[in-house]
Each structure stands twice: as C-alpha cells, then as structure tokens.
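User: For a reading group we're discussing how well predicted structures match intuition. Take TspO and MBR related proteins. Before you show the prediction, I'll give you the sequence so everyone sees exactly what went in.
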Amino acid sequence: MRTSRLVLTGAAVGTIVGTARADLNATHVFNPDWPPHARFHGAAGWGTVAGAQVLALWLLWRPASSTAELDLAARTAALLPAVAWAPFFAALATPGTAVEDEPGHLPRLAGVPLNLVPATLVPAVAALGYLLHRRGL
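Assistant: Thanks. Here is the predicted 3D structure of TspO and MBR related proteins, as structure tokens, for the group to look at:
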C-alpha cells in the first residue's frame, strides 16, 4: 500500500470529521439563534465538503486501469481538501466577516484561532500526499 494514498486519505477523512465537529453543533448548524436559512446553508455547505471528500476517497481506493488514471485520481484527491479549506482565507477578505463572533470562543494556537490551523495544515498534508505519490511512495 502506498504511503501517499494513506496521507491523502488522512486529509480527506480529517476534513470530513473536522468540519463535522466544527459545523454540526449548537454553535453553527444547530444554533437556535441562527435564522433557518443560515442553518440550511451551513448544513448544505458541510454536505458539499463531505461529499467532495467521499469522492476523494473513492478516487484513491478504486482500482485504476492505468498509471495516467491513478495520477489523475491522486491529483484530484489532493486538490479536494484544499478546495474545502482555502475559502476560509478568501472569506476573511470579505468585508464584515470574522473567524469567530465576539467575544470570541475559539481556542488559539500561537495566537491563531484554532479553525485556521486545519485550514492551513490539511492542504499542506494533501500537498505532501501528492508529492509522495509523484515520487512513487
């Protein structure tokens, strides 16, 4: 079994589990203070992210008929976690947005709100997995 496949699997599974823990709770999707349509978008957004990661897992673990097909599967599986997390940084550039509401409830790691840590690390892990794939590992 290739190490790259396991690393890419970790990025996909980590994205599913991490976003579920962050979004499917009383502070987000099940927050009674949120308007119903906002909760709808939160649930739909999580479903989109989770579905993309399930696609990544399928691409990684299904039999490939050629090296080119395997390469495309690994490349796509590496991009999907990055696509899930990169919008965190684009959202920060949108006027009136924040990574947390006042007074702030997110733990910090080196002064950085905790939700920005996986937004940085998971795409890096996915990139590492793809790099390992390219090296035949």
